[in-house]
Design the sequence.
């Protein structure tokens, strides 16, 4: 027999004397028999307890005829055999000697080899070949960033020290002395450059395999982040016959099968969880209607809006808004309508507005098509940030007493705006994504405060990080995900990951640690951010006071610079208008002088003509008088 104390380690068991050990449980088996499967054998039934019936209750007992039912609990199995093709393998050897040099180059002389190498490096064909090879290498390097093949699964002392260093990042140095902004920025930059990464944890594939569907929208479960609602639609919202209209709710720990299917009557173009009543979801459809789902009541929608009172185009964005019963939503579409709904009565919206600008002083007049919507209760419960098809971001005030509900407009984009969101730490600044750039605006200026460089491909979506103020994400049409950290670099992204060969349509972040990116082929990539990007160390969120202070100073500096430039632009515009007015006045004076000169010239010409006529009339009169006198003398 073997006797051991469960509380002692293997070292104590092997090397310490047995007289100091306290026997807690004694195993009466040999060690080699541990872990064997139990062997069951039939035995006679044994009475464990005999409970006598209560006489009062026994009178109420009604005997029934016995019923025998056979149940087979073993699963049905089938045996199959498969013969695979036989492959012949062989071993080959190779002896490699230095060669390939031209006849006029002696490989044993280094100077001749170097001269030949310099001559080859100047050749255009060599440069083109090297460039093509570097593109391939860059592609696989990006794949390595997406999936770390050198991941360390067992932490060592170095990893612990780095985590301690990340934990110690704060605004105060040892001894109670405050560090400068430069030291804080350098510490953040050093941390970012050492370990920044975005790792793909899993990929959710669309269940529909016969027809390719595009991911149109994503929505995280508001509380735990373990569930992800995904809406699917035809690519570019095309009409496809017999298309699967289902959308799904996925469990992030089970990528093989969706947890629940959502079955609408039209493909969903957007979807959103209720932030308070988490079983409720609202979805906007391709035909312009809205569908309400309750996960407690199954896959089918519990209510939907009527087409005659809904949007005339696909619903591009939908959001829950603050109300007493958490039952109100707002939807926008490129038809220019902004509809407010009560999910208890989806027959008709209780408020309807046109996303229209009528004032001429706002830089644009007319109806605008809504494509992106952001509603932030920490900023205002009645104001909405809207990105439009015309490339204009605007603030819509629902409770404005003016006829024109659009209070402010922001220009700069050359095409439709696909995503807008306020910064969660400084809500007067917001991010907009469209055309080839992502721009950061302040609500105090019409022009962007900061913007990314123009990319070679279209940007399709973007959002802020909820755990770090200076980090935001953008997706591109070539399938790349860019992670920007404006404290580290404003010219290029800190991390760029190639996720798909198809365009990435949408992105949503949960808790700053996890990302979900939906692609045009129906796949959803689930990623985890490194500790420097997520600001989580050992599962705990770190303070960001120093980063907030640095970012606020940077944004205020850029805002002041833009104000100065805007004032300079206004001044130049005024000077230009003044110069134009002076030039027009000068031209008017010149025209008046020219006209006066012409009139004076015409007057002089008229006087000259008049004097000339009078002169000739006088001459003619004298001539006539002379002729008459001569005639009279001749007669006499």
Sequence:
């Amino acid at each position: 027999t073997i006797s051991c104390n469960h509380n002692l380690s293997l070292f104590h068991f092997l090397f310490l004397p047995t007289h100091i050990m306290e026997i807690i449980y004694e195993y009466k088996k040999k060690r080699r028999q541990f872990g064997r499967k139990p062997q069951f054998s039939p035995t006679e039934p044994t009475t464990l307890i005999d409970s006598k019936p209560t006489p009062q209750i026994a009178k109420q007992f009604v005997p029934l005829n016995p019923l025998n039912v056979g149940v087979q609990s073993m699963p049905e199995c089938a045996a199959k055999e498969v013969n695979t093709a036989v492959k012949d393998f062989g071993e080959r050897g190779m002896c490699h000697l230095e060669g390939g040099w031209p006849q006029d180059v002696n490989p044993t002389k280094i100077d001749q080899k170097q001269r030949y190498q310099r001559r080859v490096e100047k050749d255009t064909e060599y440069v083109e070949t090297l460039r093509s090879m570097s593109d391939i290498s860059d592609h696989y390097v990006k794949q390595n960033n997406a999936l770390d093949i050198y991941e360390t699964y067992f932490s060592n002392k170095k990893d612990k020290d780095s985590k301690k260093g990340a934990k110690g990042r704060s605004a105060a140095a040892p001894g109670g002395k405050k560090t400068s902004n430069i030291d804080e920025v350098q510490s953040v930059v050093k941390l970012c450059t050492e370990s920044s990464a975005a790792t793909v944890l899993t990929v959710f594939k669309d269940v529909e395999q016969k027809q390719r569907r595009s991911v149109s929208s994503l929505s995280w479960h508001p509380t735990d982040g373990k569930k992800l609602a995904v809406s699917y639609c035809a690519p570019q919202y095309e009409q496809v016959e017999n298309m699967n209209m289902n959308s799904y709710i996925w469990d992030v720990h089970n990528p093989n099968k969706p947890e629940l299917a959502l079955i609408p009557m039209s493909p969903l173009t957007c979807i959103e969880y209720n932030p308070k009543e988490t079983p409720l979801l609202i979805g906007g459809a391709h035909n312009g209607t809205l569908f309400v789902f309750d996960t407690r009541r199954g896959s089918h929608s519990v209510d939907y809006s009527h087409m005659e009172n809904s949007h005339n185009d696909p619903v591009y964005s939908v959001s829950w808004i603050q109300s007493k019963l958490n039952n109100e939503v707002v939807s926008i579409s490129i038809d220019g309508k902004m509809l407010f709904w009560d999910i208890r009565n989806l027959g008709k919206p209780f408020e309807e507005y046109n996303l229209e600008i009528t004032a001429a002083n706002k830089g644009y007049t007319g109806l605008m098509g809504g494509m992106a919507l952001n509603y932030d209760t920490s900023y205002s419960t009645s104001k909405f940030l809207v990105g439009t098809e015309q490339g204009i971001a605007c603030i819509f005030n629902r409770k404005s007493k003016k006829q024109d509900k659009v209070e402010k407009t922001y220009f700069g984009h050359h095409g439709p705006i696909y995503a807008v969101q306020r910064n969660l730490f400084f809500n007067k600044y917001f991010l907009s994504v469209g055309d080839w750039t992502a721009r950061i605006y302040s609500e105090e200026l019409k022009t962007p405060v900061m913007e990314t460089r123009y990319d070679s491909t279209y940007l399709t979506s973007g959002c802020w990080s909820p755990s770090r103020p200076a980090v935001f994400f953008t997706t591109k049409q070539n399938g790349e995900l860019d992670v920007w950290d404006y404290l580290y670099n404003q010219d290029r992204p800190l991390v760029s990951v190639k996720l798909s060969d198809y365009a990435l349509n949408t992105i949503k972040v949960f808790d700053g640690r996890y990302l979900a990116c939906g692609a045009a082929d129906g796949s959803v990539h689930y990623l985890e951010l490194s500790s420097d990007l997520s600001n989580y160390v050992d599962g705990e969120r770190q303070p960001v006071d120093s980063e907030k202070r640095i970012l606020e100073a940077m944004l205020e500096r850029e805002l002041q610079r833009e104000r100065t430039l805007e004032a300079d632009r206004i001044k130049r515009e005024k000077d230009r208008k003044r110069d134009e007015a002076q030039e027009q006045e000068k031209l008017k004076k010149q025209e008046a002088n020219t006209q006066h000169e012409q009139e004076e010239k015409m007057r002089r010409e008229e006087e000259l003509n008049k004097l000339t006529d009078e002169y000739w009339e006088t001459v003619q009169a004298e001539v006539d008088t002379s002729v008459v006198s001569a005639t009279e003398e001749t007669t006499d």
